[in-house]
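[recover] target loaded
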């Protein structure tokens, strides 16, 4: 884990994304931003996010040119994760994270030299709690009555130190 993070922030983010099967990975191109769905790895979040892909994809080239990415999750909450992506070709790590589902999805095996991992080193995450109904009502009430809604904000930001 490349980042020095508070354990509470890691646990909060882990809890927020643990049930999200799919994430939207956003990369930058010369034309602008591009997002695509990615299968979330079934690995306990420790500060890094992992995704499988192939070298013959646009996202591979985009990450080689600009490592700044965003990963968005929608589940019990909405989560937007900002980080730096790196390409990982380590055979041991690919084997560790590989599952039979990837064989079907990618129509190959983990030891295919075209298969790579994208590792996202998390820098910050912002989330909106969808399930906190009482906090949401208080937030909208204060907004409608022009009171300060700061104490009832329905979103939070986690900053991860690099």
């Amino acid at each position: 884990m490349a980042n020095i993070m508070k354990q509470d922030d890691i646990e909060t983010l882990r809890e927020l994304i643990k049930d999200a099967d799919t994430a939207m990975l956003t990369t930058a191109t010369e034309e602008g931003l591009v997002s695509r769905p990615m299968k979330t790895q079934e690995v306990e979040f420790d500060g890094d996010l992992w995704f499988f892909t192939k070298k013959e994809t646009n996202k591979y080239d985009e990450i080689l040119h600009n490592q700044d990415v965003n990963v968005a999750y929608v589940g019990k909450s909405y989560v937007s994760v900002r980080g730096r992506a790196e390409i990982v070709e380590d055979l041991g790590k690919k084997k560790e994270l590989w599952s039979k589902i990837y064989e079907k999805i990618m129509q190959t095996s983990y030891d295919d030299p075209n298969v790579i991992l994208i590792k996202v080193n998390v820098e910050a995450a912002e989330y909106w709690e969808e399930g906190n109904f009482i906090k949401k009502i208080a937030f909208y009430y204060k907004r409608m009555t022009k009171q300060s809604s700061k104490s009832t904000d329905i979103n939070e930001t986690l900053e991860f130190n690099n």
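[recover] notes: The radius of gyration is 18 Å.
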